[in-house]
Structure to design on (358 residues):
């Protein structure tokens, strides 16, 4: 960062931001990113309370850079956990290490490698989209010219190129969410922390932002933690899911592992002679529960003929196609019409689905 950049930064960043600290982040932060040797997140016995009541209780996990879902009902402590990972709150009990740095001591340094999309806020009224993203890039230590160039790039990536000069408070909710994603990306972070990124979006807006997030995690190699109370969001994007309830880590599941589980749940939506269809499923050894319009069909894959043989997906012992095939043949035998059959991509218990979706 040259001295001209420093002066400009001082002018726009105001009294509350120390320019020297930003310079420090830039030099050392870049060293952290280019070093790239430790991209893990390690949380050890983390306990946290804002006041008296514990909000996070003995949370322990390690994450490799990848697509991770942080799933839990409202109030379960997701936002608080992300704040601990960002070093935004004082850590008293337990340890949080991000990019090889202890967040109780080196949070400012680590943040050079972290992008943060908060659920609320993040929009500064009166600024253009590109002005806002560039400004936030500067606040995270980028020289002004680099920040402006990257702002154009990331706004293009999120699909806001045409609207980038418009005042951001006039943006639709979907555009605001994409703008917030752009500002989280501007300094080229190693990990992205996204707090309820689909909040307030219509179905099309939801799909659009989830596709962007998936692209970042699966194709562009970023680590992503997607915090949400919506199971469908993490199913679309994440390879691994951490489940939080009342501040405790309740479960952890790798999405790919479902093909290895002998008991699998299929969602079935159809029409016709349901009684005959259910009787046919019973003969397969399935147990069926009804969830609104869906039939949840639990199959013991070991009993399904063909589950292991002659199917294209040989990488797992119990591929989804085997269960879908079995359900299709029962339906066709009793002429039950099927609108949709799919395996639930995670094998978390049904009660749990209900808890988080409630
Ligand atoms: P989630 O993001 O899963 O909805 P939060 O982390 O926001 O959960 O909240 C977890 C708990 O912490 C809730 O009981 C909430 O009321 C409480 N909480 C969150 N923020 C604060 C705060 N700033 N001060 C005091 N309590 C808070
Ligand atoms: Mg929250």
């Amino acid at each position: 960062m040259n001295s001209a950049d420093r002066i400009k930064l001082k002018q726009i960043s105001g009294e509350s931001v120390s320019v020297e600290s930003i310079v420090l982040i830039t030099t050392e932060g870049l060293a952290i990113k280019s070093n790239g040797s430790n991209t893990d997140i390690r949380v050890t016995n983390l306990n946290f309370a804002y006041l008296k009541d514990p909000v996070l209780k003995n949370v322990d996990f390690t994450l490799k850079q990848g697509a991770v879902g942080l799933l839990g009902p409202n109030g379960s402590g997701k936002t608080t956990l992300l704040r601990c990972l960002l070093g935004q709150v004082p850590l008293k009990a337990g340890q949080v290490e991000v990019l090889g740095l202890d967040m109780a001591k080196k949070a400012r340094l680590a943040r050079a490698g972290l992008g943060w999309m908060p659920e609320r806020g993040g929009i500064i009224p009166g600024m253009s989209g590109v002005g806002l993203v560039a400004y936030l890039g500067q606040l995270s230590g980028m020289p002004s010219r680099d920040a402006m160039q990257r702002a154009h790039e990331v706004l293009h990536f999120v699909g806001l190129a045409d609207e980038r000069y418009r005042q951001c408070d006039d943006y639709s909710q979907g555009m605001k969410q994409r703008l917030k994603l752009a500002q989280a990306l501007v300094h080229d972070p190693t990990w992205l922390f996204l707090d309820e990124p689909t909040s307030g979006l219509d179905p099309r807006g939801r799909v659009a932002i989830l596709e962007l997030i998936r692209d970042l995690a699966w194709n562009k190699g970023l680590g992503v933690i997607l915090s949400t109370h919506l199971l469908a969001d993490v199913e679309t994007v994440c390879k691994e899911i951490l489940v939080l309830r009342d501040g405790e880590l309740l479960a952890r599941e790798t999405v790919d592992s479902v093909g290895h589980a002998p008991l699998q749940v299929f969602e079935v939506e159809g029409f016709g002679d349901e009684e005959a269809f259910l009787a046919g499923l019973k003969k397969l050894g399935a147990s069926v529960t009804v969830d609104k319009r869906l039939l949840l069909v639990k199959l013991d894959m070991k009993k399904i003929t063909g589950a292991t043989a002659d199917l294209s997906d040989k990488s797992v012992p119990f591929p989804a196609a085997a269960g879908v095939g079995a359900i299709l043949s029962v339906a066709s035998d009793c002429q039950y019409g099927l609108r949709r059959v799919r395996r639930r991509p995670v094998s978390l218990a049904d009660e749990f689905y209900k808890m988080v979706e409630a």
Q: What stands out?
A: Residues 38 and 99 are 5 Å apart (CA to CA).
